[in-house]
Design brief:
Length: 512
């Protein structure tokens, strides 16, 4: 009997309950592990819409290649199908006479719509469709309260979420330290039944375009996707895949003292790969190359015996994973979470560039890292080149764009992050932009990160700026965060004339 496991996120074999469950079902002789290159994502990038930047595409292809290798170790393989899942899946199920379809639950709006439609399309087939929670620690549904008042019923259609981190912790864990409440990961399947039909049969049923240019459902190449990959020197150092994810996690967790004492606000925003001060596991959690439950289990095993002295949520490393969980829950429960107007918990502000597609010279300068504020420009340059920046660097640039200096809508900032981040994640990106713009969760709008004073404390010599902005390499330390104040002869000696080799500041910081 044939069955299908549909990979979307969750690009891993470990802690993949949907896959493991399917492989263990009686009578299943062929499990088809599939990934669908959905035009929703593909066309967006080919029409120059910035939904997915080239580095994230490359990262995804690396994840798929790695998954294929790991499946092959189980005598299986990945089948990559090109096209709309709503059209392809019914054809595939019919062609294989598949009796089961499994996938990981996904709570993002497009995924909820897509999966709902798939279920409808398949309702007349004798195919059992089942989804499993494994992208988050908890199923968001389990943490919502039923709405009681008319207001709650009107606003919280899916249920009422806890709206503070503390309330979330007390609901999910009952106590800050109670990591025992989190569901445990499950092992990878030991065997993946692989009695497959011939590729010709599949191509006949689905159409040759679905099989890709080689006619073998292989992982697409960058040429097939028309991706203009960066040169070797410009490549991101972060490579996709479950194998790298597990190695990275293990390597970070080896230093137990660092894990026990981890306090996020004390980590350095100026440290980057390979000596970053945080895990850089976010891209792997985003694509599901790493299970959050496995990561949690490993962290809890280190923290639990040291509970008296270890750092605690929200600052601890486990606390970071719980931020992820809290924001996923909010993304699922809050209507219009990624917008100002439709979002009931979002402060309504008259931001500049309020509409999708709006642009302005200030927005472009921010995006391209030429605001004239070296701290901001260095972070945006790292983001463009590596697809990852430290949380406090994200704070700095997000505050600068919104309530700090430019008063541009946080939605425009979130769109730029969505394009450039390897870890761009709908729930987490929206939540953090809401936070940083003081639109929701955080209300102390007057606590602004100065792009001059903050880095002077964090990186007094300006090494981070010198690394990412070569034009400022020789600027004396005194002027590194305000190069426009350097006398002309100093600028000449530093081989950096402000306004020529490096831009003048686009706003007067004190005034803005
Ligand atoms: P670590 O400190 O090692 O934390 C471990 C994991 O915990 C992370 O990998 C991540 O999954 C989770 N985590 C940590 N901080 C947060 C947080 N504030 N919110 C939610 N989860 C968190 N993170 C994303 O994964 N995707 C995004 O699209 C994203 N957009 C952001 C936008 C803005 C404006 C800001 C300020 C933050 C954003 N973050 C986002 C959150 C955070 O900056 C990153 O998760 C973190 O920097 C990733 O680095 P790390 O893996 O080394 O984190």
């Amino acid at each position: 009997m044939s069955s299908v496991h549909w990979f979307r996120k969750g690009l891993r074999l470990h802690d993949n309950p949907a896959l493991t469950d399917l492989c263990q079902r009686p009578g299943v002789t062929g499990v088809y592990p599939i990934f669908i290159l959905d035009p929703f994502f593909v066309e967006a990038s080919q029409t120059n819409s910035p939904r997915i930047g080239v580095r994230r595409w490359k990262f995804l292809l690396e994840c798929l290649e790695d998954l294929n290798v790991r499946l092959k170790e189980h005598d299986s393989r990945l089948f990559v199908l090109r096209g709309n899942p709503l059209k392809i899946l019914p054809k595939l199920v019919k062609a294989l006479d598949a009796k089961h379809l499994t996938f990981e639950k996904d709570t993002e709006p497009y995924a909820l719509y897509r999966d709902g439609e798939v279920m409808k399309e398949l309702k007349d087939y004798s195919c059992d469709v089942a989804s499993f929670t494994s992208h988050t620690l908890f199923d968001p549904e389990s943490l919502l309260k039923p709405p009681k008042t008319d207001y709650e019923k009107n606003v919280w259609k899916r249920g009422v979420p806890p709206l503070t981190y503390r309330a979330f912790i007390s609901k999910a864990l009952k106590a800050e330290s109670n990591g025992d409440c989190v569901p445990l990961p499950i092992p990878a399947p030991t065997k993946i039944p692989s009695a497959y039909t011939s590729l010709d049969n599949l191509i006949e049923a689905l159409g040759s375009e679905v099989a890709g240019p080689n006619g073998d459902f292989s992982v697409p190449s960058s040429e097939e996707l028309n991706l203009e990959l960066p040169s070797k020197e410009e490549e991101s150092p972060h490579k996709g895949g479950e194998t790298v994810a597990l190695e990275r996690m293990d390597s970070f967790l080896k230093d137990k003292a660092r894990v026990i004492n981890f306090k996020k606000p004390e980590t350095a925003p100026t440290a980057f790969y390979p000596t970053a001060s945080t895990t850089i596991l976010s891209p792997y959690l985003k694509f599901g190359c790493l299970s959050p439950r496995l990561f949690h289990q490993e962290l809890w095993a280190i923290e639990k015996p040291a509970l008296k002295t270890s750092s605690k949520p929200p600052e601890s490393l486990r606390g970071q994973l719980l931020w992820r969980e809290f924001f996923y829950l909010c993304g699922y429960a809050v209507p219009g979470f990624d917008s100002m107007k439709q979002n009931p918990i979002c402060l309504q502000m008259e931001w500049k560039c309020p509409q999708k597609g709006d642009s302005s010279p200030h927005l472009e300068a921010w995006r391209e890292g030429r605001t004239g504020f070296p701290w901001i420009d260095a972070a945006m340059t790292q983001l463009r080149k590596e697809g990852w920046i430290h949380h406090l660097a994200r704070h700095a640039v997000a505050c600068f764009l919104t309530r700090g200096n430019l008063y541009i809508s946080w939605e425009r900032g979130a769109e730029v992050f969505e394009e450039l981040l390897l870890d761009a994640d709908w729930s987490l990106n929206s939540a953090n932009w809401l936070w940083l713009s003081a639109s929701a969760f955080f209300t102390q709008y007057f606590r602004v990160y100065s792009p001059i004073v903050f880095p002077k404390k964090t990186d007094p010599d300006g090494n981070y700026v010198r690394h990412w902005i070569p034009a400022l390499k020789h600027m004396p330390t005194k002027y590194i965060y305000e190069p426009w104040t350097a006398p002309l002869d100093v600028q000449r000696r530093a081989k950096c004339i402000i306004g020529k080799d490096y831009p003048r500041p686009i706003v007067d910081h004190a005034v803005s």
